[in-house]
Design brief:
Blueprint: H1 7-13, H2 38-55, H3 59-72, E1 82-84, E2 87-94, E3 97-105, H4 107-110, E4 118-122, H5 123-130, E5 134-141, E6 148-155, E7 161-167, E8 172-173, E9 179-183, E10 186-191, E11 194-198, E12 214-219, E13 228-232, E14 239-245, E15 252-260, E16 263-270, E17 273-276, E18 284-288, E19 291-295, E20 300-302, E21 305-307, E22 312-316, H6 317-321, E23 328-331, E24 337-344, E25 349-355, E26 359-367, E27 370-376, E28 384-389, E29 397-404, E30 407-415, E31 424-428, E32 438-446, E33 452-460, E34 471-474, H7 489-494, E35 501-505, H8 515-519, H9 527-542, E36 551-556, H10 558-569, E37 576-580, H11 599-602, H12 608-614, H13 619-622, E38 632-637, H14 646-657, E39 662-667, H15 678-696
Parallel strand pairs: 34-35, 34-36, 36-37, 37-38, 38-39
Antiparallel strand pairs: 1-2, 2-3, 3-4, 5-6, 6-7, 7-8, 7-9, 10-11, 11-12, 12-13, 14-15, 15-16, 16-17, 18-19, 19-22, 20-21, 22-23, 24-25, 25-26, 26-27, 28-29, 29-30, 30-31, 32-33, 33-35
Helix pairs in contact: 3-15
Length: 698
């Protein structure tokens, strides 16, 4: 994996809090934004009890919940591993370890059907000993020593976590070692005795988005408050962070300033000076050994050459710093291809792309002044694949994970130095649902402006053309995140086994066709994402696959905003809606938790000219008392400190006020993922699928 992750994507995954704004006078449900108030939680529990009574009280629900839990807890799942030193580490949850264990084994042992694992850290035992509901948030290892790491633990699944230094040899937290209190910190090793820390240092230390505004270097044995300031961003920036490239021979310090979600600056810190990397602000830059890699989001003209948006470029890092603008094109998009990711091995670059929303892989090798490309085989025609380096410092080996909607995930081990050789198949997930008679098809709908919108249909090979098939349409359409068709055993057991159809819509706003596909639905053009989703739904009806009475939809987070807009824009087109951890009040989204950081995606509702178009896709403001709506289930989490649970609460209250068919369930734990462990996830999943089955079938 590229060592310097784009900070905007990091922040999408782990967001921060922001202060409450002035209260609008016309919002009667503003009081529901108090996340932990007694009155508010009593309101939540009352609705939880109703939803549980209506959806989770029968044997059909308990059977489905049990089957989903058996999948999530299955010992036959592939244990994904990370190489640290000479051993391979895995974090694992199952029925015996609901909070999970961090464990390790050797490669030879990992190759066996039933590896013997050594427990490194038992989160269940730790939670019991400390009387905390710890949720594992990962570990950052000090390379190349591979002995000390920084373990991150969250209370109840929130994005905020505590950080503690841990010794992998003694398998214990370091007495008097580095430790950070609960916050949404960005922490990185600089040396064995110093860290880069971006965290909440008190009043004035956060940006208006609620993220760390300053980076400091913290020396071992000194108090955090004494850490030296090395960089401070502006109050209206999104965030800042610092990283150190620990590759032997290429040790370098970097500072990243995230200006908005989609713009950033990268600085090399050398000899006490900050050297700005000369790239477009909306491009992401990373390093791998001697190479600087730049991913473009808009066209960039260098000399006589204009490189298109979506291209991946490489330059000799030191030569680039001195002004040499020799750029090697590692990937150049077409209308139907896009870059997904790249990963560096010791001597190669692995590039993952999408070709008409189908995964493709290539190995790139620099030789005699030119990059040479070889395809990487083994990815299914309709499916997805991901490739990562086993150890980018010392090895050319890679992990390849592939799957398709009807083919369980497979993990293979290959070498980028022998791209022509099929990788060694190590593990495969069993078939968790019956796929006989099912097929995967790719279709296209035509959106309102004439743009073709691809979608994948998974279901029986032969369907009646009378619109009678219960169908679930899933969508997201935001933040340049593509939806690709992979193996989803939960939808398999809950939906496909019943002869129903499952559809994935590749609407604009996502990343299926690169930056242009995403940018086509930004801000004032947001309506295009919703028009695309409607076009897919209408195409399913036109083709006779389903009918509005039988058509359900589901989406979460930004996809929850999509669901809210489908409710208010086209209530006639759908029979049921599952809306998960959603944004719904777009008048106040920028004042709730991390919402201000997403104004680059949606716009600024405090600017009258932008609120004019934002109001058009603010479901909370567009519900009408005199209009009929399909049944909707809205779910969220009290511990979601990314998208405020007030969105879901307030929308539920408004729909109840208007007498509309709405159920809601708020998990008291779980964070933005909605669940803190497998049992909670099984319950939440079963709730949604039971609701859809109840509303869309006779």
């Amino acid at each position: 994996m590229n060592r310097l992750l784009p900070l905007g994507l990091i922040l999408l995954m782990a967001s921060a809090h922001a202060a409450s704004p002035e209260s609008p006078p016309d919002d009667p449900y503003l009081w529901l934004e108090d996340v932990g108030g007694d009155r508010q939680l009593a309101w939540v529990r009352e609705r939880n009890e109703k939803s549980t009574r209506m959806l989770a009280s029968g044997t059909v629900f308990s059977s489905l919940e049990g089957r989903i839990l058996s999948i999530l807890d299955s010992k036959e799942r592939i244990p994904a591993v990370t190489k640290i030193g000479d051993r391979f580490y895995n974090f694992w949850r199952d029925a015996a370890n609901p909070k999970g264990v961090w464990r390790r084994t050797t490669l030879d042992e990992y190759r066996t059907p039933q590896p013997v694992w050594e427990t490194v850290l038992d989160i269940d035992a730790l939670a019991k000993a400390e009387d905390e509901n710890w949720v594992w948030h990962g570990a950052t290892v000090l390379e190349p020593d591979d002995r000390r790491c920084l373990v991150s633990l969250s209370r109840g699944g929130a994005d905020a976590d505590v950080v503690r230094e841990f010794d992998l040899d003694s398998k214990a937290f370091v007495d008097g070692g580095f430790a950070l209190p609960e916050a949404k910190s960005r922490v990185a090793w600089r040396t064995a005795d110093s860290l880069f820390v971006a965290t909440d240092f008190g009043p004035g230390s956060l940006t208006s988005s609620g993220y760390p505004r300053s980076v400091r270097e913290w020396m071992r044995g000194t108090p955090l408050v004494a850490a030296d300031m090395i960089f401070e961003g502006r109050p209206d920036d999104m965030s800042v962070a610092a990283f150190r490239d620990l590759t032997p021979g290429f040790e370098r310090d970097f500072i990243s300033r995230q200006i908005t979600f989609w713009t950033n600056e990268l600085f090399l810190r050398r000899d006490g000076q900050l050297l700005k990397i000369a790239k477009p602000d909306d491009a992401n830059a990373s390093v791998h050994r001697e190479w600087l890699l730049i991913e473009l989001r808009t066209p960039w003209t260098v000399g006589a050459t204009t490189h298109p948006a979506g291209a991946l470029l490489a330059a000799d890092f030191e030569a680039f710093l001195k002004g040499d603008r020799t750029l090697h094109v590692l990937f150049e998009p077409t209308d139907r291809t896009s870059l997904v990711a790249w990963a560096g091995t010791r001597h190669h670059i692995l590039v993952s792309t999408l070709d008409n929303v189908r995964s493709r892989m290539a190995v790139l090798t620099f030789n005699e002044g030119t990059w040479h490309r070889e395809p990487l085989a083994g990815v299914p025609e309709f499916g997805t694949g991901s490739v990562t380096a086993v150890d980018e410092m010392d090895s050319d080996d890679y992990w390849l994970v592939t799957s398709s909607p009807l083919e369980p995930s497979t993990l293979s081990l290959g070498s980028a130095s022998a791209a022509e050789r099929a990788p060694e198949k190590l593990k495969q997930t069993p078939a968790f649902f019956r796929a006989e008679g099912l097929t995967v098809e790719q279709h296209e709908a035509v959106s309102k402006d004439g743009t073709p919108i691809p979608y994948f249909q998974i279901g029986p090979a032969s369907l009646p053309s009378d619109g009678s098939t219960p169908t679930l349409l899933y969508g997201y359409g935001g933040f340049e995140i593509p939806l690709v068709p992979g193996y989803n055993p939960v939808s398999g057991v809950a939906w496909l086994e019943k002869g129903h159809a499952y559809v994935i819509a590749n609407i604009r706003g996502g990343g299926e066709f690169g930056p242009r596909w995403h940018q086509a639905a930004l801000k004032e053009n947001r309506h295009r994402a919703y028009e695309d989703f409607v076009a897919v739904a209408e195409d399913l009806v036109r083709r006779g696959i389903t009918s509005p009475r039988r058509l359900g939809i589901m989406g979460g987070s930004n996809g929850g905003l999509l669901m809210g807009n489908m409710l208010t824009m086209r209530p006639d087109l759908f029979g049921a809606i599952v809306c998960q951890v959603p944004l719904l009040d777009m008048r106040r989204f920028n004042k709730l938790l991390a919402g201000a950081s997403w104004m680059g995606e949606y716009g600024d509702p405090d600017k009258p000219e932008e609120w004019t178009f934002i109001r058009g896709f603010s479901p909370y403001h567009n519900v009408a008392r005199d209009r009929d709506y399909p049944p909707i289930l809205i779910t969220t989490s009290t511990r979601d400190d990314r998208v405020h649970p007030g969105h879901a609460r307030k929308m539920t209250a408004r729909l109840e006020e208007y007498g509309k068919p709405v159920l809601s369930y708020e998990n008291i734990e779980g964070g933005h993922g909605g669940a803190a462990d497998n049992r909670q996830k099984a319950f939440m999943d079963a709730l949604g699928w039971t609701f859809l089955d109840r509303e869309l079938t006779d």
